[in-house]
Design a protein that fits this description.
seven-stranded mixed β-sheet, two-stranded antiparallel ribbon, 11 helices, about 20% strand, elongated
Length: about 300
């Protein structure tokens, strides 16, 4: 492996000479002698085997090669500073990674807005995001695979704060037979139709929720696939209103006129995976999520 012969300090010196308008000005700003700066830049050019500066009058001007290398060196120096900052943050207990588990019913707009807002605070922390359904969140907590979880049920042994209320609405395609009845619907009407449901992503703690009366149940793996099925006229089902709204507005889906249960509300909770004390990055992201979920 070829090791770099040029140091970051040499690149910083070159940048200072250009940014401050010359050797004398740079020496004054950096509290160094002008001769030491001249030597550093001369050594840099010697090691690279090319001229980076030329003197015009009393001013140092970049050569074409110098312009290219100076531009690249700025990113190099910035990356080195960022690397040192990340090391410092890790030393202060800032987590290198946050494992976030989110129930599929949580509004994507809230989630993405929170993650975007977290970026300036992340200090190099990576976010590993996984979407789950029903007991998938419980299992991630119990198995220690999550640092921050948004779920519909707080497992035993954990504490959670209510984060947001999600409203589900029963819908079907506008041409679905249930809409052709043109009257208030009962459970008996639903029994004969295909009910599109979401598969629990958990393995050990599987559970069912909602109306389970239909003998014809088609199971899909995500809310997006459920929406596709319903828009395609394959059955009826309950979708989060924030997801169904655009299809209702476009007229592709229509709310079912159920006598009861046409809408239901689900509470989602935020739970820390670390039972003792979550890390500072996790707490920061949690605070941003709370802020974005305020009505």
């Amino acid at each position: 492996m070829n090791h770099p012969r040029v140091t970051l300090e040499q690149w910083r010196t070159l940048q200072a000479v250009i940014d401050f308008g010359g050797y004398a000005q740079a020496a004054e700003k950096l509290h160094r002698s002008q001769s030491s700066l001249s030597y550093t830049v001369a050594r840099l050019q010697q090691q690279l085997g090319m001229a980076l500066l030329r003197i015009e009058g009393r001013k140092a001007v970049l050569t074409p090669a110098g312009e290219v290398l100076l531009r690249r060196s700025r990113q190099l120096v910035a990356d080195a500073a960022e690397l040192e900052a990340v090391a410092h943050n890790l030393d202060q207990g800032w987590e290198p990674e946050i494992r976030v588990i989110v129930d599929a019913a949580f509004p994507s707009t809230c989630l993405m807005a929170a993650l975007k807002q977290f970026v300036p605070f992340s200090r190099g922390t990576r976010v590993q995001l996984n979407e789950v359904v029903l007991s998938g969140a419980d299992e991630a907590l119990l198995e220690g695979r999550a640092d921050l979880v948004i779920c519909g049920q707080v497992p035993q042994g954990f504490l959670g704060d209510q984060l947001i209320e999600v409203e589900f609405v029963a819908v079907a395609h506008r041409d679905h037979p249930l809409h052709q009845l043109q009257r208030e619907l009962t459970n008996e009407d639903l029994l004969r139709e295909i009910h599109v449901v979401i598969r629990d992503s958990g393995v050990q703690l599987k559970r069912d929720v909602g109306w389970l009366g239909s003998t014809e149940r088609w199971t899909v793996t995500s809310l997006d696939k459920a929406a596709d099925a319903l828009v395609g006229g394959l059955g009826f089902g309950w979708l989060p209103y924030h997801q169904a709204k655009k299809y209702i507005v476009s007229g592709e889906l229509k709310p079912l006129p159920l006598r009861e249960g046409q809408r239901r509300k689900v509470q989602l909770f935020m739970v820390f995976g670390q039972l003792e004390r979550p890390g500072p990055a996790t707490q920061q992201l949690a605070a941003i999520l709370r802020e974005n979920c305020q009505p």
